[in-house]
């Protein structure tokens, strides 16, 4: 069965009007850190200031250059439980649970190239398995140490089993 997804670059909170509330809040958090800059600084990410209920659902990925690669810096406990292992410290290619890691790279590349948050909504709700449900909603938020080059991405991932997730959201 083909997995259907709604995907788009997020340039304003209005783009996420029908998204789950926690991802709208994540975008607003990213925008607040960004301020008047093109991108928020990677150093602005402070896990002590991130809402505690987000932490299990967050992934921080370092963007490596020469050669290009993506390395997991921090992986939340809910993500580790979904995956069935902890990829922290490994590259995306080394640890992708998918047969084709290219689609995972493409999601990160979109956030890197557009320098904007990138939203995905899996519309089929197909699970990889009962033990490891697929992430349903993902928001990729780019960060930069120099204000130009994306060198870190924060991903907020949720699935349909998360409690209290649908308050105020449209459920397809």
Description:
By secondary structure, the protein is an alpha+beta fold. The chain has one domain: Beta-Lactamase (2-Layer Sandwich), CATH 3.30.450.20. Helix content is 22%, strand content 22%. The protein is built from 4 helices and 6 strands. A 6-stranded antiparallel sheet has the order 1-4-5-6-2-3, with helices on both faces. The C terminus is likely disordered.
In short:
The protein has 172 residues and is α+β, with helices and mostly antiparallel strands. Strands 1-4-5-6-2-3 form a six-stranded antiparallel sheet, sandwiched between helices.
Supply database-style keywords.
172 residues, alpha+beta, Beta-Lactamase, 6-stranded antiparallel sheet, globular
Strand share of the residues? 15-25%
| Shape descriptor | globular
Q: What class would the helix/strand composition place it in?
A: alpha+beta
Radius of gyration: 15 Å
CATH A-level architecture: 2-Layer Sandwich
Distance between the amino and carboxyl termini:
18 Å
- Low-pLDDT runs: 163-172
Number of helices: 4
Query: Main β-sheet, in a few words?
Result: 6 strands, antiparallel
- Annotated CATH homologous superfamily: PAS domain
Count of folded domains = 1
The CATH topology assignment is Beta-Lactamase
CATH class: Alpha Beta
Topology:
Blueprint: E1 5-9, H1 21-34, E2 58-64, E3 69-75, H2 77-83, H3 92-95, H4 102-114, E4 118-122, E5 137-143, E6 152-158
Antiparallel strand pairs: 1-4, 2-3, 2-6, 4-5, 5-6
